[in-house]
Amino acid sequence: MKRARLPLLAVLPVTVISFVVAVPFVAGDHPLRWESGSVLPEVVLNGEDTGKPKSSNGTAAGASAPATTEVAKVDKEWKEGMPQWGVQLYWEDNPDHSLDYVEKQARLHSDYLVGLHANSVSVSFPFFTGDRDSTEISGGGKTPTPERLARVLRIFHEAGLRTTVRPLMDETSLDVDNGDWRGNIDPTDRDAWFASYEKFLTPYLKAADGEQAATFVIGTELNSMEGDTRWDDLVASAEQTFSGEVAYDANWDNYVSGRINMPVSHLGIDAYFPVEVADTAPVETLVDGWNDWLDKKATGPLPNITIAEAGIGAMNGAYQAPGDFYTKRAVNPQVQANWYEAVCQVVQERQMSGVYWWSIYFDDDPNSKPDDKVASRLDFAGRPLTEKAIKSCFTSDYAGPGIDTAS
Q1: Across-strand partners of 266?
Q2: For 48-54+87-394, which CATH superfamily applies?
């Protein structure tokens, strides 16, 4: 059911703060610094924060999935008002993989998610552009076709999982060494960019609608494009094609430091802000860190906010840079598990609409232990302490924000 659009000038309460940052942060893939003494502006939402080359867990892309056509079913199917307990599944498709392989992998992941007691899954996949000034948007060799996406969504739907479709701009063609990333693209002709983007998105919106996906994320971490009035027409067109919820996922830096004015019905946050604590910090201290950060935007319940990406490396020093996708320091599973436990507690205390853990690669076997010689420290599948924290979260008695989004 379509989520009602909120008024264009719905204003959330904010707190004015000053804060000092001593270390570089990561927005998307890239270090940023917040300015000392920054004053947070008013936030405007209508609806209320990858190409990241996230590393796989080292499992061979061609590894075979169990030869079964049956899928396990969720404990309780998601209904409006319930929390979204989910995982981001990142899919860089290989057109040489048969449809049979794709379906087997989807069943493998579906069974794993059901085993975690998840009720939701978000399928993220890459699309491509040129350089920072480019007006062209397109699929590439790693972009699944709408038809293959539909088959995967169908398998997840059969398992009772709530599904989200989430195209994500790949950064391969951007000059990342000099600070370019999806959040600072600057198309020379924005009319052409939006026209190209709509042409790319429309077949995926149709596929998502045909398979009864609950949410379509119209954009992710596109900081420099937020607030452009051309989104109005693009979102309106999307809502004519897709009967579910149209959302936008903001990057964590823009969420607290700028105006996010997007004509969508729901906002997600890709949350990789630092918490300056020791590796031995207890969960309660991490919860305080999360609440301090969220309070920079608004205090109290946040029922219209979803943590669209949450994750952290299972390694020493990760609390200072949760979004460090590349560093491989000494493995410390407890750091990751404590962070997951803290995030879950915050989602419940702040009455948020849910959380999606980043991430699992589509070609990986989530039941295998990560090979820490090659795997990203952010990988959580196969780490027993983190999986235990996830299961505890997903089986909690939190009933959800309980919003009537049908009105």
Answers
A1: 247
A2: Glycosidases (3.20.20.80)
